[in-house]
Every structure is written in C-alpha cells, then in structure tokens.
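Hi support team,

I'm opening this ticket because the web form for multi-chain structure prediction keeps timing out on my end. I have pasted the exact lines I submitted so you can reproduce it. The total is 236 residues across two entries, so I didn't expect it to be a heavy job. Is there a limit I'm missing, or should I split the entries? Thanks in advance, R.K.
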Amino acid sequence: MTQIQILSPFSGTVVRMEDVPDPVFAQKMLGDGLAVHPDEGLAVAPISGKLIIFHSAGHAFAIEAAKGRITVLVHIGLDTVRMKGEGFRCLSQVGDRVSAGQRLVDFNLSAITKAGYSVVSPVLLPEPPEAMRLVKSEATHVSAGVDLLLTAITP
Amino acid sequence: MEEQAKQFIEALGGEDNIEEIEGCITRLRGTLVDPSKVDQKMLQSLRIVGRPIIMGNGIQVVVGTHAELIGTAMNKIMKDG
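Hello R.K., no limit was hit. The queue was backed up. Here is the completed structure from your submission:
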C-alpha cells in the first residue's frame, strides 16, 4: 500500500469540489479532489514529482508523483485560460522535477477578480489508478505547502 | 495529435463552423457558428469525457489533459487551411 500526501498548493479556504461554480469540476468529470479559495496569489507544488503539464497561459499545471502512479492537477481560478497569461508568472517549466512546497506560480488575485472570473482553484486527481482511495482534509483553512489537502491511498 | 485534431474539427461541424477554439488544460472551448452541426456520435467516438456542454454558440468538450495540444494543433490546421 502506498500513501501519497498531497499538500495544499494554496493558502486559503477549502471549498468542496461539488461547490465549485463550474459544472465540469463540480460533477467531477475530470476527477475528484478539493478546491481552495486562495487568499494570496501563490501556488506551490502539492507533491514532489515531474511537472508534466504547464499550460502556456500559466493558470494550470499537473505533476506526476515520483511514486504511486498518480497525477495531481492544479487549476488556478475558473475560466482563467481567457486571461492568456496576464497576471500569471510561471517559475518552472514542463519537464522540471519539483519538490512538494516549491513555488511554481505567482499570480495576481485581484486581476482575476477584476477580469470577472472566480478565483476558486480546483486541485484534483485526473485518471486515478484503479482502487485508489482519496481521503480529503476536513480543515476549513489551509496554508500553502504546509497543510495536507488530500491523501491518495493506492493498493 | 494532428490526426486527432482533424477529427475534432470534423466532429465540431468542420472548419467553417468553428469561429474560435482553444485548449484549456483539460477541455477544448470555443465558439461555433451553428452548434446543431456538431456530430455528437463522432465526438463520443473520440473518447471525450461526458457530453459536450453547449451554451448559446459556446461549446466546451472535456478531452483530458492533452487539451492544450489538441487545441493548438486544431488552430494550426485551420490557419494553414
């Protein structure tokens, strides 16, 4: 049995996936997890592993865990792809090996709000391995790179 | 990827039906001229997740984590004619 601890990439208030105001995330079409309403514009790596996706707009990335065959996807805000990178500063790139807690994106929270988008940021596991169990944090507020958000347990 | 991009263009009603398309991290999102021209059967055969979300002329199709690559390939094909 492998237990992978997934740290919160953001500091902020925890939001249930079902309550994310975007049907694709809320209906867990991509996978299950939790979302965070960040209170500062910083995203860190939730796990150690390889950065396999970093969208060119800087608003989303995915890390493949070094072990345990899981991938964690982090999406900063909703519909923020439309901002085309404005207000997002990436500090890493695809292919990089990153450590849990490492700073990956600086973003401008008020720019997202001003552009009319939600800052609610889903953190989820797309295509989880069969029989994986996901334990969700019951905390209401989490700190980036410090607090556990999710635990993935694979047989 | 190019082959897949071509199939998505066809499934969305062809190049002339696509006003704009972009790949987000897991979904293609765009604006269509006529959403009724979408070939739902063909879309399903391209292994999309769930059903496409259509609001007005806007469409979102969940394709998985390679969405940005497909979106970029689609735009390249449409630009090059």
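A quick check on our side: Chain B has one domain: 2-80. Let us know if the file doesn't open in your viewer.
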